[in-house]
Amino acid sequence: MISDRGLAHRYGSTEVLRLADWKVAQGERWLVLGPSGCGKTTLLHLVAGLIRPTEGSVEVARPIGIVPQKLHLIPSLDVE
Question: Domain total for the chain?
Fold first, then answer.
């Protein structure tokens, strides 16, 4: 299960994502579509716990992973 409450994220002063309360039940599948720059990758990073939301919260019932189309290094993670 994945759920969020009042989720929003900004990079500096630019808001890139605002999502009303949303819930994905166990077994459901969702497709995230939209034009470049609309917040798809930001949403995935928030759900995966790679970044923290500017506003609101995300709850994930169990660990998840994402596989990007292209290999990109994620600036919020460091090498350990």
Answer: 1
